[in-house]
Amino acid sequence: MPFARSWKPALRLAVKGLAAVLVVGLVSAGIAALAQAQPLAQPPAQSAGDGETIFKTKCTPCHTIGGGHLVGPDLKDVTTRRTRDWLTQWISAPDQMLAAKDPIAVQLLAENNNIPMPNLALTEAEVASIIAYFETNPTVLPAQQPALPTGDPAIGRELFTGAVRFQNGGPPCMGCHSVAGIGALGGGALGPDLTPAFNKYGDAGLAQFLNSVPTVTMNAVWSGQPLTPDEQADIWAFLQQASVSGRPIQALGQLAALALAGTLVLLNIAHFYWRRRLVAVRRPLVARSRISS
Ligand code: HEC
Ligand code: HEC
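Above: inputs. Below: predicted complex with heme C.
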């Protein structure tokens, strides 16, 4: 059975490849489970004072009150432009209102660069206290962002893929995200592709995002192990570069070409072994036939 045996090395390589893919998949699933297993801390909240605390921890990454548009609209006078019912529903579950095609929700999304407001999984009491806080007509200017150090996109890339570990131990971004073709095959699909993230959030918006991680899954993972300012700057620089150079379609083409090249190498190896086996089998045969003739 020289033919069957000769395919073994190729087969073994293929099995190894499959095992690697499985491991990557399992790790992604593990990270996903971890993200879901850590619920956000829910402070008890009933009053405008509590509303202020919640607003300043969970909403200021994206909103000011009287300080202009950030990632989302300026919320000055929002209690006069919207009804209490609408605000309650919206702050509780903006995703559901959008899914139900609420006309204001649809219009707001279009006006805000198609960035959906995340569902922050607030309790009824928390939502009520935020609205009570809005009714006191507060002013909340954008937080003075400490200027990020200049980032290095090459380090950002290594942090993204996990080649360099985060100082506080967070999982590599590629566990859940792809960007500009990186991770398109092996990376996680739990989070969105980040190629457009820089343009979507804008430079200041993305810096804010990396600093405060306002969305639910991200926050569950990162609040306990925040990125250092240097890491934020490096990732920021990498995502900026990826938004310019990232042509996911082309990158996918390159990946397909790589996969094809890999297959060819595999076939070559198999072919080589096959030939060698044949030679190994044929030599004694030939030798024997010489002796007998
Ligand atoms: C990740 C960014 C983000 C976070 C965090 C966020 N929002 Fe929003 N918010 C938006 C965006 C973007 C919109 C515009 C609607 C859209 O695009 O879906 C919006 C819209 C709103 C509106 C409607 C504004 C209007 O003009 O009618 C209210 C009210 C609001 N947010 C309140 C909050 C509150 C309260 C919190 C904190 C509990 C919060 N948001 C947290 C991004 C965010
Ligand atoms: C555990 C999985 C996980 C990891 C690890 C992770 N993310 Fe995310 N990320 C998500 C999910 C899920 C979302 C969608 C919003 C949400 O639910 O938080 C998201 C959203 C985002 C967004 C907003 C994208 C958009 O289009 O709105 C950015 C930016 C982002 N992540 C950056 C990062 C960076 C940078 C890292 C590494 C430092 C990272 N993420 C690591 C799961 C993850």
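The radius of gyration is 27 Å.
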